[in-house]
Amino acid sequence: MLEEVRIQGLGVIDDAVLELSPGFTVVTGETGAGKTMVVTGLGLLFGGRADPQRVRPGAERAVVEGRLTVPPDGRVAERVAEAGGELDDDVLILTRSVSAEGRSRATLGGRSAPVSLLAYLADDLVAVHGQSDQQRLLRTDRQRAALDRYAGERLAATAGGYAAAYRRHREVADTLAELTTRARERAQEADLLRFGVEEITAADPKPGEDAELLAEETRLAHADALRVAATTAHEVLVGDPASDVEIDVTALLASARQALAAVREHDPALAAVADRLDEVGYVLSDAATELASYRESVDADPARLAAVQERRSLLTQLGRKYGPTTDDVLAWAEDAAKRLAELDGDDERIEELREEEAAQRRRMTELADRLTEIRTEVAERFGAAVTEELTALAMPHARVSVRVTTGEEFGPHGRDDIELLLAPHPSAPPLPLNKGASGGELSRVMLAIEVVFAGADPVPTFVFDEVDAGVGGKAAVEIGRRLARLARRAQVIVVTHLPQVAAFADAHLVVEKSNDGMVTASGVTRLDRSGRVRELSRMLAGLEDSELGRAHAEELLTIAAADRPGDTGRH
């Protein structure tokens, strides 16, 4: 239940506090006094759209704060805890602010929270209805939602399964359409990939082959120079009587080793040098052997050089198309082969998707038929329940019915078009609400629907903004009486301009502007009995002190009190 609402900087309201009570609370005031800002503030508090134009001129922001009592073990308390908020003795504090620049912020139980969470919690806390709701009720999608809500869990379970099947069917159908419409593009892509894979397969490059061939080509191109260098170095190391080289490193090293060998035992330092010369001798011997072997292996082979150059040219051509190195070319071929497998498998996948699409369509048809069956059955009960409520709202001869029309096309909610029809009197044909209902009748139809919902899917608090627009007289009295009866099951807050409705309230708040045109802290007053008489007199006759108006106001309060068993005229 809402205990208190504080509104700052919203429209004509500077800073005002509304102390709310259980039962039926009515808010009245002269035109332009700011009554509607109360409903606007409640809409903001529960996640409504933030309109910076609603911020009072000169104020930095509009702020709405609400205090609510909630069950500590209920779903609302659980979500508050999940968001990091806390309850204070079962009291939840919500705040919502909107800056003049349009920035919106919200807090929940002392912690910042997304505005969407406020809107989510509102489903369990409050139902706010304004004049715009009556216009929305004219839309067939809202009428379908109203019927589905009335059907409850029985329809919700089927609707959930249908929605899942519908989404999957759309996904499959979209994928299938994409694959079939892109068949030519896929075929062209496959041809290009297949040509590339075949070209690379025919060339059969090996990992690192390009680097190896480059080294071999360089060696073959310089074979003569390499062989002469190896021969010369070999002759320098070991000597060759047949050559012109007079240096013999091996012989010179042997002479040095022999000179040291005779005296090495006399000095360890000299012995160490002798050992190192021995090691040099072994290294020179190995180097000479390797040079001799290398000299024999180097062979100028013009045919092999031509073959290597031709192979390198082929690999270079592949590199220009598929990657700078043979490793890159091989990687491209591997990726292309995988993509080819996907493309070649698309035909098989298309067939699988067609089968799934047909299966999902059968599933949708089955569930859509079930939705139609439930809606058709519930429509009769829903129409009868709303018709019964209209009887209590001074429309005893009106009849509301629900027309369920099943089409061929599937939509997110099935194949049904739902339309509420109203026959205001027995001789009138049932017509859609936008053609068969006046403004006052539409107000009563909406109230009747909400009363029906209150029994089927109750919320703790109902807020109505001039739900009685366009009605008067006896109809207004019956609306007041029905709101009072609804208040026996829930908290009801009503902004009204009709004294017949206000008379049935348990608590009466009046909104008044100060001299500067603002609603201040003293501008929202809770009326006692005499205050209610004065306010009802003003609403009836336009004059607070009119004797006739006061007498009529007293009569209204007496009638309303008599309608509540055990009521002796509560304020």
Q: How would you sum up this structure, described in words?
A:
The chain has 571 residues and is of the alpha/beta class. 57% of the residues lie in helices and 16% in strands. It has 19 helices and 15 strands. The protein has helices spanning 35-45, 75-82, 115-125, 131-137, 140-151, 153-181, 183-203, 209-221, 223-238, 249-261, 268-297, 302-322, 326-392, 433-436, 439-456, 473-486, 499-502, 529-541, 547-562; strands at 2-10, 13-19, 24-28, 61-69, 91-99, 104-108, 111-112, 126-129, 399-411, 414-423, 431-432, 461-465, 491-495, 507-511, 524-526. The strands form 3 sheets. The protein has a 6-stranded antiparallel beta sheet, covered by helices on one side. Strands 8-12-13-3-14-15 form a 6-stranded mixed beta sheet. Strands 9-10-11 form a 3-stranded antiparallel beta sheet. The protein is elongated and about 150 Å long. The mean pLDDT is 85.
Secondary-structure topology with pairs:
Layout: E1 2-10, E2 13-19, E3 24-28, H1 35-45, E4 61-69, H2 75-82, E5 91-99, E6 104-108, E7 111-112, H3 115-125, E8 126-129, H4 131-137, H5 140-151, H6 153-181, H7 183-203, H8 209-221, H9 223-238, H10 249-261, H11 268-297, H12 302-322, H13 326-392, E9 399-411, E10 414-423, E11 431-432, H14 433-436, H15 439-456, E12 461-465, H16 473-486, E13 491-495, H17 499-502, E14 507-511, E15 524-526, H18 529-541, H19 547-562
Parallel strand pairs: 3-13, 3-14, 8-12, 12-13
Antiparallel strand pairs: 1-2, 1-4, 4-5, 5-6, 6-7, 9-10, 10-11, 14-15
Helix pairs in contact: 5-13, 6-13, 7-12, 7-13, 8-12, 9-11, 10-11, 12-13, 13-15, 15-16, 18-19
Protein name: DNA repair protein RecN
Coiled coil: 343-370
Domain RecF/RecN/SMC N-terminal: 2-518
